[in-house]
Amino acid sequence: MRLARLTQRKEFLAAADHGRRFRSSAFMAQVRDAAPDEPRKDGEPVALRLGLTASRKTGNAVKRNRIRRRLREAAKQALAHQTERPCDIVVIARSDVLTARFKTLVADLSIAIDRAKPHKPREAAFADRRRPPPKRGTPSQA
């Protein structure tokens, strides 16, 4: 069984901006629930899609490819019974994926969809910060 994949940058960004997050010691999962009537390319049905990222911080090309292979296989086993669920999952790997036990990866991925928590939208996160200092030459409003 092969999982459908996220292939375009805008799909990854949508999961990052509008998704829920689950943190593990080996990876972070971003889960975006898809609407049942959401259009997909090539008329494919709305079902689970997987996207994997491993940045250069995780290691050289050999290590990154090995990380992606391990996560892809763990996702096949963990998400096999959830393939009809309409959501997109982006897994952002950490270097601990290489040393983590495979059973732990499978267990964490299988609960990532249900336990992922909503995060603050970016606009709200910036609104909480302190007001910037006034520009020079303007009277302060104290």
Would you mind describing this structure in some detail?
The structure is a single chain. This protein has 4 helices and 6 strands; from the N terminus they run E-H-E-E-E-H-E-H-E-H. By secondary structure, the protein is of the alpha/beta class. It has a 6-stranded mixed sheet, with helices on both faces. Helix 2 packs across helix 3.
Terminal residue distance: 65 Å
Summarize model confidence as the mean pLDDT: 83
Number of helix segments? 4
Structural class: alpha/beta
The strand order across the widest sheet is 1-4-5-3-2-6
Helix content: 25-40%
Cα shape: globular
The stretches of 5 or more residues where confidence is low (pLDDT under 50) are none
Number of separate strands? 6
Kindly provide the radius of gyration, computed on alpha-carbon positions and rounded to a whole number of angstroms: 19 Å
Proportion of strand residues: 15-25%
Q: What does the main sheet amount to? A: 6 strands, mixed
Order of helices and strands: EHEEEHEHEH
